């Protein structure tokens, strides 16, 4: 059983009583929120009058045209002549019924919506993503967009994008959203903190809304069995909760019902939430299997499947559960559902596994596969185990003295073991550093409390195992410390990715000891790719010791951008010769080059899981595949 689902349900704290009106956290008035959370900017409410769905551009297919029976139907239902029915016309008078009553983060307030707040997304540093390389391979690739309004997402979703203060799409969104809205399967790899959640949520919400006007919708009314039309799987409870919250924010006032299901919380309450209707189910694998086996959830109506942190979901820990959910239950097969896989890291062997779940998919990389962003300043210090605590204290004192930018900076410290996390939490607290630990041996309520206390700044130091390494989007984490380095470089990438998010800068410090020598080569490679200064001693370890470098080279190839699609690597398919270096030429150039994608050679799809194919795929980087290079966001 995965650690995510090992906590007993009895630990969950009782559900709070339902109050009348639910407002997702980002839209709440600061004055009405609790002491948790940073103050947010007030949003203008003038544009929030009703949601009348319209179309930005026309197409020939019918809305919600069936994807079943008659083979794969590409391009889900856009019609220039159809107007989408209005769902919730009056923002101020709306009372949302889609309330997840058991999730502490989602408060139910009396807010009438007149003072809506959101995170400081307008402060995103888009310039930080200039010159980010983009590669897309596959057949008939829909061109990228430069603005959200170029994509036919529907008025309700567009309103919510504005409410979130998403002024323009991030690079991964520019490419992934048009691909997904066109109904294509997608394997997408983009750096931590680059907006992947919205990249899969927007197309799903948009698709659910379109289908809703064709079908009964909301997956309820038949029986106690829930029939979601979209499933988003993620590896941890906290990440599922976060995706749920984000998705609710994006679907605000559209009537799309989103339910979260995860272990460690009372299943009965989650059943109740499902009974109220569900369009999009966000779940951890263990809890979902449980629900399916109790005949409370059917996957028979799934049209959209998204795996966040897909490489983690398909590694040894989760793969059997994922295969069970995706291949052995009643979920429609690839080609009849749309499947989207997202992560910041995608080892080739996982790509190969993942292709079982996909049909004629497009592979998208934004930034180097498995790379960290150069927004994160990476420091590696040689510290023997016995000296780590005193070194940590020096570091924390120095940072405290720095008084980072007037805001209370948060520090996330990663350790190897659960016991180690508890011990370090205790030691830090005893030494005057307010710290709290999160790991898989804590009951869910404690985990949530720890995260909340950290997010709020009440406890500015979080000591964590890898439970907190993936996906969590916590504002103001200014420093990630790898007190114990992970064994796998991908885990390092995800850990340090808790800082330096959404174009902001961050600092990551690693304590490197003798035990970490096998990681040296991979670490050096990663740091060089991210334009970081590599200490001489670390380079020497990397050069002199032949420990295999933690598998980075083996898993991703040489540290250069391009040709990471394992289909290309194995099949040797050509991905065209275009490359673009000017931002002004970018969209036209990419649009014009939709033929640049001849990488859909079936050889790549039918690779048997043999050692030979594996190793060929793993060493595919000698092929000179060309890539489309996107520079700049506009
Ligand atoms: N278009 C946008 N404009 C402004 N902010 C955005 C935009 N898209 C996403 N963000 C913000 O960027 C932050 C990071 O997004 P998100 O958590 O989706 O990243 P991610 O790529 O999934 O990261 P990870 O790999 O760690 O899971 C979030 O706070 C999100 O609200």
Write the layout of secondary structure elements.
Blueprint: E1 21-22, E2 41-43, E3 108-109, E4 116-118, E5 134-137, H1 155-163, H2 171-181, E6 186-190, H3 196-212, E7 230-233, H4 237-250, E8 258-261, H5 267-275, E9 280-283, H6 285-293, E10 304-308, H7 310-313, H8 319-328, E11 338-343, H9 348-354, E12 362-366, E13 376-382, H10 388-402, E14 410-414, H11 418-430, E15 435-438, H12 444-456, E16 461-464, E17 477-482, H13 489-496, E18 506-512, H14 520-529, H15 536-544, H16 552-556, H17 566-571, H18 586-592, H19 611-618
Parallel strand pairs: 6-11, 6-12, 7-9, 7-10, 8-9, 10-11, 13-18, 14-16, 14-17, 15-16, 17-18
Antiparallel strand pairs: 1-3, 2-4, 5-12
Helix pairs in contact: 2-3, 3-4, 6-8, 14-15
């Amino acid at each position: 059983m995965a650690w995510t689902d090992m906590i007993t349900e009895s630990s969950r704290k009782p559900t709070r009583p339902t109050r009348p009106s639910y407002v997702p956290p980002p839209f709440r008035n600061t004055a009405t929120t609790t002491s948790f959370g940073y103050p947010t900017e007030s949003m203008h409410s003038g544009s929030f009058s009703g949601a009348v769905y319209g179309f930005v551009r026309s197409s020939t297919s019918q809305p919600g045209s069936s994807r079943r029976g008659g083979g794969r139907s590409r391009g889900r239902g856009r019609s220039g002549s159809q107007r989408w029915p209005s769902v919730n016309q009056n923002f101020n008078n709306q009372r949302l019924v889609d309330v997840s009553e058991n999730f502490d983060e989602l408060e139910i307030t009396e807010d009438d919506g007149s003072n809506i707040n959101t995170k400081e997304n307008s402060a995103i540093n888009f310039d930080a993503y200039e010159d980010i390389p983009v590669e897309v391979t596959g057949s008939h690739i829909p061109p990228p967009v430069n603005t959200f309004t170029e994509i036919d997402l529907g008025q309700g979703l567009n309103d919510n994008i504005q409410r979130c203060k998403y002024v323009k799409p991030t690079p991964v969104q520019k490419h992934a959203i048009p691909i997904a809205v066109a109904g294509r399967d997608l394997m997408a790899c983009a750096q931590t903190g680059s907006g992947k959640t919205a990249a899969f949520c927007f197309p799903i919400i948009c698709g659910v809304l379109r289908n809703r006007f064709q079908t009964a919708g909301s997956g309820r009314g038949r029986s106690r069995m829930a029939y979601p039309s979209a499933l988003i799987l993620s590896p941890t409870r906290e990440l599922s909760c976060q995706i749920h919250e984000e998705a609710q924010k994006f679907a605000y006032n559209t009537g799309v019902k989103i339910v979260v299901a995860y272990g460690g919380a009372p299943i009965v309450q989650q059943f109740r939430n499902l009974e109220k209707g569900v369009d999009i189910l966000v779940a951890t694998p263990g809890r979902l299997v449980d629900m399916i086996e109790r005949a409370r959830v059917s996957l028979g109506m799934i049209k959209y499947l998204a795996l966040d942190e897909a490489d983690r979901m398909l590694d040894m820990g989760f793969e059997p559960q994922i295969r069970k959910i995706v291949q052995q239950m009643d979920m429609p097969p690839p080609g009849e559902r749309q499947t989207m896989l997202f992560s910041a890291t995608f080892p080739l062997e996982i790509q190969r596994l993942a292709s079982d779940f996909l049909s004629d998919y497009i592979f998208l990389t934004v930034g180097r596969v498995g790379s960290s962003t150069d927004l994160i300043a990476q420091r590696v210090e040689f510290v023997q185990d016995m000296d780590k605590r005193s070194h940590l204290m020096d570091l924390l004192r120095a940072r405290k003295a720095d008084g980072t930018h007037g805001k209370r900076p948060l520090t996330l410290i990663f350790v190897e073991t659960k016991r180690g996390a508890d011990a370090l939490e205790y030691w830090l607290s005893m030494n005057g550093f307010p710290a709290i630990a999160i790991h898989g041996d804590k009951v869910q309520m404690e985990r949530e409390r720890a995260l909340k206390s950290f997010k709020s700044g009440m406890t500015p130091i979080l000591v964590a195992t890898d439970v907190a390494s993936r996906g969590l989007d916590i504002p103001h984490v200014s420093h990630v410390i790898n007190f114990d380095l992970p064994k796998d470089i991908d885990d390092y990438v995800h850990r340090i990715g808790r800082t330096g998010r959404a174009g902001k800068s961050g600092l990551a410090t690693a304590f490197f000891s003798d035990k970490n020598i096998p990681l040296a080569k991979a670490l050096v490679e990663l740091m060089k790719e991210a334009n970081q200064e590599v200490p001489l001693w670390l380079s020497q370890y990397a050069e002199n010791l032949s420990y295999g470098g933690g598998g980075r080279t083996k898993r991703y190839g040489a540290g250069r951008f391009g040709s990471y699609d394992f289909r290309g690597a194995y099949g040797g398919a050509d991905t065209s010769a275009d490359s673009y270096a000017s931002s002004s030429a970018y969209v036209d150039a990419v649009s014009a080059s939709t033929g640049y994608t001849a990488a859909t050679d079936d050889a790549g799809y039918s690779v048997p899981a043999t050692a030979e194919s594996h190793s060929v795929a793993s060493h595919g980087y000698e092929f000179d595949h060309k890539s489309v290079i996107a520079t700049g966001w506009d």
